[in-house]
């Protein structure tokens, strides 16, 4: 009979509750990736497990430490890969599972896994390109025996093909949306007012269309600007939110063009994400197709806000049944302008029931509990597999 393991309850005298999971965050971890790991840490800690996080940056470490993680600073010097032996010394104890969060870290993850004699789990957070045959074979060999996961069906398919495996070789796990943080009742009006001042919109009563993960590239920005200036577009502020502080770069002059400047604002990375959602009437996640995931749209729906996503690339998985009107053709700015106008109008008449249904959809399929249930199963699976070996 196969021995079953509950990884959140099993204990061992050497270091108490297990599994003791080491989360390896890449140096360029996105906000969505950090939020996902935060959810994993909270689940492990709440259930009596232990979470250790190798975090390359102080900003990452601060939020994770507050969630109950043991933080181990870890970064390579001079662009070199971090030393697994140094990590073992810093952790100072056994590790049952090494959990990496980018396929690019597979080589490092395997080295750390071997150093700890632990199981290996990979969660991929964005679509990966299909590499050459030799690279696929090398990647498949490194990840043999690991639990390979992804945060959406599109990302799972891309990862499986990158490894040269069947599409069902990668399991999909929920995003782990924090329903207590992403909640209108949890954001006092003072935070929203402060953000309005930071955006320079104190005296502007127009609705706000929050455009997330803006790419400072000519084709992409021109598409958004064409939609914002289309005759069918509503008289609204299109707030362009970026992932980093690099600004619009060479596309800056476009944003000051009189054709667009009356409606478009570059706001950079939101200093207060929940307050940004509270201020906005509609969220447009135009970069979701490139990533293969739409965490920002899930956050917005948890907040009771309408969302718009590009059609294709598995985006329907992030919408409740019957919400097909939230999808727009990714190459038709006029259609996008019409969808934004409709969403803004509907916001004014949306009832509590519609907001509650959207929030319930996110909590049920993409929330904390859904992620923790899935990870119990996957962590148990890799630990059981190691016992069999």
The class by helix and strand makeup works out as alpha/beta
Helicity range: 40-55%
**Beta fraction of the residues?**
5-15%
Number of strands: 15
Could you report the average pLDDT, rounded to the nearest whole number? 85
Q: Work out the radius of gyration.
A: 22 Å
Report the major sheet: 7 strands, parallel
Can you put this structure into words, describing what you see?
The protein has 389 residues and is α/β, with parallel strands linked by helices. The protein contains 15 helices and 15 strands. The strands form three sheets. Strands 5-4-3-6-7-8-9 form a seven-stranded parallel sheet, sandwiched between helices. The protein has a six-stranded parallel sheet with strand order 12-11-10-13-14-15, sandwiched between helices. Strands 1-2 form a two-stranded antiparallel ribbon. Helix 12 packs across helix 14. The chain is globular, with a radius of gyration of 22 Å. The model is unreliable at 1-17 (pLDDT under 50).
Features:
389 residues, alpha/beta, seven-stranded parallel sheet, six-stranded parallel sheet, 15 strands, 41% helix, 14% strand, globular, disordered N terminus
List the SSEs and their pairings:
Blueprint: E1 11-12, E2 16-17, E3 20-24, H1 31-46, E4 50-55, H2 58-66, E5 70-73, H3 84-91, E6 97-100, H4 106-116, E7 119-124, H5 133-142, E8 147-150, H6 153-162, E9 171-172, H7 189-198, E10 208-211, H8 218-228, E11 237-240, H9 252-255, E12 264-266, H10 273-279, E13 282-284, H11 288-291, H12 295-302, E14 307-310, E15 327-328, H13 333-349, H14 352-366, H15 368-388
Parallel strand pairs: 3-4, 3-6, 4-5, 6-7, 7-8, 8-9, 10-11, 10-13, 11-12, 13-14, 14-15
Antiparallel strand pairs: 1-2
Helix pairs in contact: 1-15, 3-4, 7-10, 8-13, 12-14, 14-15
């Amino acid at each position: 009979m196969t021995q079953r393991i509950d990884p959140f309850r099993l204990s061992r005298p050497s270091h108490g509750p297990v599994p003791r999971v080491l989360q390896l965050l890449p140096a360029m971890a996105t906000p969505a990736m950090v939020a996902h790991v935060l959810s994993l840490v909270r689940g492990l800690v709440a259930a009596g497990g232990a979470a250790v996080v190798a975090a390359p940056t102080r900003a990452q470490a601060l939020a994770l430490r507050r969630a109950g993680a043991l933080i181990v600073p870890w970064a390579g010097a001079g662009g070199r890969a971090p030393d697994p032996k140094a990590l073992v010394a810093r952790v100072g104890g056994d590790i049952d599972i090494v959990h990496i969060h980018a396929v690019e870290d597979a080589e490092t993850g395997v080295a750390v896994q071997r150093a700890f004699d632990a199981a290996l789990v990979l969660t991929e957070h964005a679509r990966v390109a299909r590499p050459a045959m030799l690279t696929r074979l090398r990647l498949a060999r490194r990840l043999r025996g690991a639990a390979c996961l992804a945060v959406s069906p599109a990302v799972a398919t891309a990862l499986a093909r990158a490894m040269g495996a069947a599409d069902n070789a990668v399991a999909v796990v929920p995003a782990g949306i924090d329903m207590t943080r992403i909640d209108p009742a949890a954001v006092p009006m003072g935070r929203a007012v402060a953000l309005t001042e930071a955006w320079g919109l104190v005296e502007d009563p127009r609705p706000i269309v929050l455009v997330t993960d803006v790419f400072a590239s000519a084709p992409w920005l021109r598409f958004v600007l064409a939609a914002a200036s289309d005759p069918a577009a509503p008289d609204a502020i299109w707030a362009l939110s970026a992932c980093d502080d690099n600004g619009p770069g060479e596309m800056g002059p476009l944003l000051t063009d009189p054709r667009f400047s009356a409606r478009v604002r570059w706001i950079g990375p939101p200093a207060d994400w929940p307050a940004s959602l509270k201020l906005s009437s509609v969220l447009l996640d135009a970069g979701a197709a490139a990533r293969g995931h739409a965490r920002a749209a899930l956050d917005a729906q948890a907040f009771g806000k309408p969302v718009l996503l590009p059609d294709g690339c598995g985006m329907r998985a992030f919408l409740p049944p019957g919400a097909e009107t939230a999808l727009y053709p990714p190459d038709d700015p006029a259609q996008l302008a019409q969808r934004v106008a409709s969403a803004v109008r509907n916001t004014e008449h949306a009832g509590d029931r519609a907001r509650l249904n959207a929030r319930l959809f996110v909590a049920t399929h993409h929330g904390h509990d859904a992620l923790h249930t899935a990870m119990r199963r996957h962590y148990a699976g890799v630990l059981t597999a190691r016992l069999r070996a």
